[in-house]
Specification:
alpha+beta, five-stranded mixed sheet, At1g16640 B3 domain, seven-stranded mixed sheet, 2 domains
């Protein structure tokens, strides 16, 4: 049975002394390349022999620990180079973003050590893969906060919405993204493993999936600019908690302040409830859905102009 996890080194020969100057993440710096930001991940012969990755040139879907999704494939002799399908800059730009390295600049061993990782882990489940490049260093966490908040500031304009609503929506998104970063940090400190951001996948009804002591948890995250004594839950979030008794958790990040489109807390504070069990008495109805009887609906006829 093939392994379900493989660790690929990002340093030269996996020795942790230097990053290849003209291959791997610095592939674009080779004289034969056309774009300086091209990058790839080198697959050691020992990993190739395990059959962990699909055959050469067969693309496969990858989801990253920070919520990105893209397709990769292997090329070159025995498939030793792992890179983006039809986009050779994909991995070069992706890792530079996470490492805080400006585009066009070479990645060095200093950058990897500052970030806190010299390798990248791949997890396989059937035909899908998870790329885990997470790190608990303060530098990595700060870079992640900036990246999430940059995405939050690019909210598309909503039609038929006033400026006030857009401003509020933007602020809420910044608070939510900040809360997700803090929550992940808390999960890592509490020794949760295989942390997956599923906040954009409605089927899960939660924000993170993570394992602790061999058990999978469904984790809901709430950010608040108030004291966090109460939060708004959707019907789906309540249902997920009720369906998974003993395996649900709630993380509330209160007192989030926004300045210049950046979220901060004076002191990192969270409410961490695990296991999280919702008591009906703790829920307060804030709105109701009312179905208007069709028999009461009338269509007004306009008078014809003469």
């Amino acid at each position: 049975m093939a392994a379900r996890r493989q660790i690929l080194p990002l340093t030269e020969h996996g020795k942790g002394k230097r990053v290849p100057a003209k291959s791997g993440l610095n592939w674009g710096h080779a004289p034969s390349r056309n774009n300086i930001d091209e990058g790839c991940i080198l697959v050691p012969t020992s990993v190739d022999r395990t059959g962990f990755f699909p055959p050469r040139k067969k693309k496969f879907k990858v989801t990253t620990d920070d919520g990105e999704t893209f397709y990769l494939h292997r090329t070159g002799q025995r498939g030793k180079s792992l890179h983006g399908v039809e986009n050779l800059e994909l991995l070069g730009k992706y890792f530079r973003k996470r490492l805080g390295v400006p585009l066009g600049q070479p990645v060095t061993i200093h950058h990897l050590r500052r970030y806190g990782r010299l390798d990248v882990a791949f997890y396989r489940k059937r035909n899908s893969y998870l790329l885990d490049f997470s790190s608990s260093t303060k530098f990595a966490e700060d870079v992640a906060v900036v990246a999430r908040q940059q995405r939050a500031t690019s909210i598309p304009v909503l039609k038929q919405s006033g400026q006030g609503y857009l401003a509020d929506a933007k602020r809420r998104k910044i608070v939510e993204d900040y809360a997700m970063v803090v929550a992940r940090r808390q999960l890592e400190r509490r020794k949760f493993k295989n942390i997956q951001d599923v906040s954009q996948q409605k089927k899960w009804g939660c924000d993170y999936l993570a394992n602790l002591d061999g058990q999978q948890y469904f984790i809901e995250v709430k950010g608040s600019s108030g004291d966090g004594s109460s939060v708004i839950l959707t019907k789906n979030e309540v249902k997920t908690s009720e369906k998974n008794p003993g395996r649900s958790a709630l993380i509330v990040v209160p007192s989030v302040r926004i300045k210049d489109d950046l979220a901060t807390q004076e002191v990192e504070t969270v409410a961490f409830i695990a296991p999280w069990s919702i008591e009906k008495s703790d829920l307060e109805a804030t709105e109701y859905r009312y179905t208007v009887p069709k028999s009461k609906t009338k269509t007004l006829k306009r008078k014809k102009r003469r």
